[in-house]
Amino acid sequence: MKCPPMTAMYIIFILSIFNIFLFFHRRQEICSSKHLDSTIAASSGYSGGIIMNGQKQKEFVTMVQKHMVDLNSDGYISMPDIVKRVWIDIGSSKDSFLGDCSICQRVYWPHRSPMTLTQEFQQSNDLFVIAIDPNIDFYSSLSKIPRLIPIIAAVFPTEGTRAFYEYQGSGCSSLLEPNANIDRKLAIYEWFRPCTKVTKITGVSTLRLETILSIIDPRLSIELLKVDAQGVDLDVVKSAGKQLKRIDKVIIEIQLDDEKRNNSNILYKNANSASETLEYMKANGFAFDKDQSSVENKAIEEYNYVFNKGKL
Predict the structure, then answer these.
(1) Residues of the chain whose pLDDT is less than 70?
(2) Which of 305, 309, 261, 271 is nearest to 107 (CA)?
(3) Can you give the pLDDT at residue 107?
(4) Domain count of the fold of the chain
(5) Per the record's keyword annotation, is Membrane included, yes or no (predicted)?
(6) Half-sphere exposure at residue 37, Cβ-oriented, CA atoms within 13 angstroms
(7) What confidence tens digit (pLDDT) does each residue in 300-309 have?
(8) By the 8 A CB rule, do 285 and 309 touch?
(9) Structural domain includes residue 176
(10) Residue 158: which CATH number?
């Protein structure tokens, strides 16, 4: 038996009200439950990393529901008193600056002893690193490195959650899907399949770099920002907002568009362009350092661009 039109509309209205009630009731349950003693538990769809206030302490968490860092009474990341300088490594590997990092062997500060980044991190007790990567598999090894705090998240201009494309090669995983128009002649290289084959799509917390910088004591020097974000590197830098002026040196991995090819050499769909990166950095007071910049993967015109605040 069919319901009269008004009766059907009434039933739909009642069901809608009921579903809204269930949604807010469930939301209240989530917000009232406790995780890590003083930290509010995160549900699926958690809206990114935020500062959580407890009765006696503050914490920083991400959607993986894992405690990331302790904050002091002023709301800044707790660091030893000896620390004077901070480096930020976005898109970190499992070893960060201690691993097989080609660019880490080239970048230095001309006005002081020309140690590589790896040497300086090993030898400088006044240096602290914040390593950010959405790959939870890196957390265990990174958390064992002295003077380094790992944060499991992706950095992006919009905070919340985003799809994360996990590629066969974990170092190629990205917020971007693969470029369907990539030149298949590149398949002769061992890295091609691992860096073009998506194995699964998950969700990750996304944070603005501005959020991270805002919980670093303003008295500390943000000496270096290293970005390897698989196609969204410039987006990462842009997410620093006005806090970008705190950073002295920036390393950005970027691809040049090889116009000689019939098909694209760009790995990711909608990846940031090299020209846009150069323009943005110049407009924000950073000079391109050609001498310290280097090739990452010549086959796809991938480079590590180095920028210094002001003139060299």
Answers:
(1) 1-67, 100, 113, 260-263, 311-312
(2) 305
(3) 84
(4) 2
(5) yes
(6) 7
(7) 999 999 999 9
(8) yes
(9) yes
(10) 3.40.50.150
